[in-house]
Structure formats: structure tokens, C-alpha cells
Amino acid sequence: MRRLRLLLTWLALVPLAGTTAPARAQTPEPSEAMRAVPADSAADVAETPPRSGWYYVLPVVAYSPETKFAFGATAARYYRLSDEPDARPTTISPLAMVTTNSQIILGLFGDLWWSDDRWHLATNLSFSKYPTQFYGIGDDTPASAEEDYTPRTAELFVDVSRALSGAFYLGAIVNAKHTTLRDLADGGLLAAGGIAGAEGGALVGAGISAAWDTRDAVHYPTRGWYHRLACVRYLDGLGSDFTYTAVDLTLTRYWSLGGARVLALNLAGASLAGDPVPFYELSRLRLRGYFEERYLERHAVRAQLEFRTPVWRRLGAAVFVGAGELAARLDRLRLDEVYPAAGCGVRYNLGGEQRANLRLDVGFGDGDSGVYVRFAEAF
To answer: Are 180 and 208 in contact (CB under 8 A)?
Structure first.
């Protein structure tokens, strides 16, 4: 039974923000990016890992509107850098994956904790070949504007942080990536060369991160807060072909409604300042029910509310609603023309300290929809 739960954990293990789409200049939210290497997943399902750790090689299967079916393999090395039995386990995990959309994703992901969890290092080294679609820039682009292109992106991302007081972490970020674009649609906007980033280029930036984390678990919190702010400046003096600043903010609150029933609220925003910003680094809605590349703009905000409850034995369910808006200028985010989203899903609980779930969600947006098979909750 333990082996079955471990297998199910890794069958759903797919990197979300960092690798299943062209890598973003904005620093990925940990709730998304760290799903590439869930530090407490298989380790929590099994017993507490010893200091010497263990090693696994397991398959990967998942589904999303952006990738369709995804297949591959991953390995994971689990161990603790502390003798404390409740210290968070360190994870190092390579990944190789192909999708039915002809996408290729390769990565090496790390989530390291040491000095009794006072220090944390999140890092990834990845490459992706990711055929996708471009619809133009703005919050009202027509579906008929769709054109194909294939970005190839190599990225190194590092975020090292230190606990300054209790649950408050302050960190430094370094992000470097290089993107080339291939297979541009003949006669399209990208082929015409009038869109910033249509010729690809290098991005090199540095910045800071700050987080406040009082969650009682990583993958299925039932109470507490998770807030994170990240700010990265990309500079030509560092070797970047583009100069701008990316700011990401996420605010999440969890309320316990008794047992494993939870009400979760997530508020998030992304803002880009400076010129030019390559189109493939622009902000997204990131709401279940919308194709991720459908709307691109400089600034975006979103809100999501989700109710999660056990149903029978290891099975659970969730219902969610959300809304988001994009704008070319911050003062135009007036929340008067929002994109709504709603949906529901089922959960299979994998057990362990963190109560990790394998989830299947169906989301509906304004004229769009999507099915998602993933590991852990959306936020």
C-alpha cells in the first residue's frame, strides 16, 4: 500500500510554473513552482526520512490544457540536513518529460533546508522546447488571432532565504535564462518582428524575496497564512537583453472548518515596469478554466476562493470560484471588467504528515475551460 501511494504521488508530479510553460521572468510563486520538487510529498507519505536519505526513480503522468497528456520520468533524492525529526526534508529531483503537444521539458530541481529550517534554498536548472500559441497582447484579443510559435528556453533560478524571526524569511534571488523562438507562423505578428521579444534573447536579473509562512502543512494546509513578495530587476549591466522590474505578490489564508474541511482564499498580483518586456514574460491570469497563454499583459490580479472537504476514506472534493483582470497600466486595474472562473474537482489523499493530495479539477472560464491532473492543491 505504501508503494502504491508513492507511485500515485509521482504520477501526478509535474512542474507547473517553472517548466510546463515557457519560463517566466517573474519569480514563480512557491505554491506553483515548488510543486516541481514537493519537499514533503513522498517523504511524508512514507516514514520520516533518515539523515542518509533514499532515492527513487518513478514515472510521471499529468494533464492540462497547455500540455494535454504529459509523460516522463523523475527521480528524487530525499534526506535531512538536520538531526531534528520534524525538520523539513531536502529534495533533489531531475525530471524528463514529453507531452502530446510535442513539448519537451528537462529539469533539475532542488529544495534544500538546513540549520533547523532557518535556511532555505529553492533552485531549478531547466530546458524546455514548448510549442504553444500567441493571441496578441491585451485583455481583449480575439481567439481568431491565434498563431503558433515554439520557444526554447534554458533557465537557472536560485532563491536562498533566511528565517529572521519565526515564520518570516528574507531572501535573495538570481534568475538567468535564454530564449530562442522557432517555427513562427507565416504572416503572423511575431514573424513581422513588431512584438518585443519576437527574436528571443537573454534575461539576467537579481532581486529579493520575503515570505511569511504559518501553514500547518505544505501540501494540504488546514490553517495559517502564506504570504510572499518577490522583486527582480533585469539589467543590461548583468548581461540581459531587456531591462525591467518584475514584482509578484501572493496572499493566502486558510481557515479550518473542522477536521480536514478547509476554506482557502488566495489573492495574487504580478506587475512589470520598464521597457521593453518580452511578450513571453508578460503576466497571465493563471486561473483554472483559462488557457495560460490566452491573455498577456503587463499587470494582472486575481482572487480565488476554494472549499475542500473529505468525502469517503481517502477521497475528497473541492469547489472553487475565482476572478482576474489584466491591464497595460496599474491605474486601469479597476476590477470592473474581470474574467470569472469556477469549477470543481476530486481528490485522492496520499496520507502522511502533509496530507498530500492527487487532484483532478475541471475549470470553466468565460468562453474557455480546462481539465487539470496535478499533485497538491492549486494554492
So the answer is: no
Domains of the chain, earliest start first: 2-375 (2.40.160.50)
Lowest mean pLDDT among 176-190, 216-230, 288-302, 307-321: 216-230
Beta carbons of 278 and 352 less than 8 angstroms apart: no
For 59-99, what is each residue's pLDDT tens digit?
A: 778 889 998 898 888 876 666 676 666 667 777 889 899 99
- Computed over every residue of the chain, the mean pLDDT equals 84
pTM exceeds cut of 0.90: no
SS (H, E, C) the chain: CHHHHHHHHHHCCCCCCCCCCCCCCCCCCHHHHHHHCCCCHHHHHCCCCCCCCEEEEEEEEEEECCCEEEEEEEEEEEECCCCCCCCCCEEEEEEEEEECCCCEEEEEEEEEEECCCCEEEEEEEEEEECCEEECCCECCCCHHHCEEEEEEEEEEEEEEEEEEECCEEEEEEEEEEEEEEECCCCCCHHHHCCCCCCCCEEEEEEEEEEEEECCCCCCCCCCEEEEEEEEEEECHHHCCCCCEEEEEEEEEEEEECCCCCEEEEEEEEEEEECCCCCHHHCECCCCCCCCCCCCEECEEEEEEEEEEEEEECCEEEEEEEEEEEEECCHHHCCCCCCEEEEEEEEEEECCCCCCCEEEEEEEECCCCEEEEEEECCCC
